[in-house]
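We give its fold:
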Amino acid sequence: MYSDIVSAELRSLRTYAQLLIDDADLGDRAVCATLSDIISSAQTTDLGGLCRVTLFHQLDIKLLETLDARGEDGAVSPLLDGLSMLEKRVLLLAVVCGFDAADIGRITGTGEAETRGVLARVQMAISTATRVGVLIIEDEPHMADLLSLLVQQTGHWVAGIAHTGEQAVELAREKTFGLILSDIELNQDMCGKSTVRNIRTVLGKDVPTVYITAHPDRVGEADTKGRDALLSKPFDIWRVRDAVNTALHAFAPRHAV
């Protein structure tokens, strides 16, 4: 149903619009205008066939009209400086909204073949956009080194390594990172959960977190509430990658607006 699709996609629609236009108010106005147009067309069109691709296609048209009226190409993050408008649209639809090349081609009206060519050109930007810095909290140095190696093999980078809760909080004040990888049972008075809570308090925001434990059977539901992920020892690159992706997906931009 129309209402179900809109409800499910509203945040991702707003995210795409705001990032492409680089203006929250204008982006929201474009989303509202798009939805109003669709509702108006309901008198002559059956909305039962409305899908996610069609919804974003209509918004994409509205955004281009908005940018044209403003007389600008629009400015997004510095990461996208130097990209054409088509490249920006393709990149945001792929990274932020999770569309594949075929769907992006339909949304932008360029076709799948051209979209694949654009994706190939901006592959480095996509890779950079999806990489995050990881703060590792592990009291055993050799285990911290192993985690550091595995994090890099997953395509992300290590923002810092802390062996105590106090070190972790200090690093959190100094470093830029998008994920915490923490042993849940640090060999000290402050456990991993308390450390992460302190870091979130210091930063004033939630941070995706993967908790590590050698005893997953002892970890209760309260220990990994909400969107945090759990990684049990022993582990390999594939299990680390799955846990990291699970945590990052839970905090993806489409859920953050």
